[in-house]
């Protein structure tokens, strides 16, 4: 019997949107953690990773404040720990409801911070963790992004980049971050073979699950999350954390300069847990979508 639940679940007092889909009952749970922060991804997972529903019960969570879960944070305290608490509540709910002890966890970019941290804290809940565009050391990754942007910039852009604080701690950190990111995208360091994000935007425009108001909320939620969480995110550094208690798989775009796939490989080599590393040669920061067929094969292989 096919499963297609599009629902809102209250996690730690906050209503949050969750999609649960599978071609039949009793398939192993797979929970997808989107990037950003605030970069809700439901239409993208449905478009590019829909084949996974033949093998998994695929759960896509639009995290608090993101996409269809948007609300104004106001004066409330929202930190990385807040999202980890939400994640634990969701994992507990899913494993109890579907009577499974563990699930597969896929984290992309910001979601990889949540996913790897959660795996470290709760390995008893994780069959395997898959990190796509894995964050390792945000300060080092930010320098890599700035260096890439400067190497490819026009004279005008280079003049602006020279004024940017790539630690993103100055008074104009948000403007600096948005400008550097724009340059990385423009020069092909984010989405392989593209100088824009059009292939990542179109699925939202034609999704049966996303309305125009949802699109507006998604944009508001993304900016809100970046403003609130980026300073804390810049302090993230997994170096030296090498034991996770569950299998760890890194899926890295060979050309990713957003969070630096080179850093991910260096870090991977230090991990002591059961592990796998997969280069996706025709990908940058979005290997799970740029090479979705290869990603699908890799995920199905995990079942065996």
From TrEMBL:
It holds the Pfam family Hydrolase_4. Coiled coil: none annotated. GO terms for cellular component: membrane. It comes from the Bacteria. GO terms for molecular function: peptidase activity. InterPro entries: AB_hydrolase_fold, AB_hydrolase_sf, Hydrolase_4, Peptidase_S33. This is Pimeloyl-ACP methyl ester carboxylesterase. It comes from Hungatella effluvii. The lineage of its organism: Bacteria, Bacillati, Bacillota, Clostridia, Lachnospirales.
């Amino acid at each position: 019997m096919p499963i297609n639940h599009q629902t809102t679940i209250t996690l730690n007092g906050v209503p949050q949107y969750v999609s649960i889909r599978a071609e039949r009952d009793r398939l192993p749970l797979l929970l997808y953690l989107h990037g950003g922060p605030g970069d809700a991804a439901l239409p993208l997972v449905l478009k590019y990773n829909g084949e996974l529903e033949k093998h998994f019960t695929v759960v896509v969570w639009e995290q608090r404040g993101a996409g269809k879960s948007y609300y104004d944070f106001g004066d409330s305290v929202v930190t990385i720990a807040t999202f980890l608490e939400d994640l634990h509540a969701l994992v507990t709910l899913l494993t109890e409801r579907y009577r499974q002890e563990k699930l597969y966890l896929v984290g992309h970019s910001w979601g990889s911070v949540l996913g790897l941290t959660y795996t470290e804290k709760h390995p008893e809940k994780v069959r395997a963790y898959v990190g796509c565009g894995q964050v390792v050391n945000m300060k080092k990754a930010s320098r890599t992004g700035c260096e890439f942007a400067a190497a490819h910039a026009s004279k005008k852009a280079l003049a602006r980049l020279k004024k940017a604080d790539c630690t993103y701690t100055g008074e104009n950190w948000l403007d600096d971050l948005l400008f550097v990111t724009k340059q990385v995208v423009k020069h092909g360091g984010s989405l392989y073979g593209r100088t824009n994000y059009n292939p990542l935007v179109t699925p939202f425009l034609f999704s049966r699950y996303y309305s125009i108001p949802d699109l507006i909320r998604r944009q508001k939620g993304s900016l809100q999350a970046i403003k609130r969480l980026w300073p804390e995110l810049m302090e993230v550094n997994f170096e030296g954390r090498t034991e996770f208690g569950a299998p760890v798989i890194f899926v890295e775009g060979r050309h990713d300069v957003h969070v630096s796939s080179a850093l991910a490989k260096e870090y991977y080599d230090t991990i002591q847990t059961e592990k796998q590393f997969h280069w996706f040669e025709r990908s940058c920061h979005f290997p799970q979508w740029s090479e979705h067929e290869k990603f699908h094969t890799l995920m199905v292989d995990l079942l065996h």
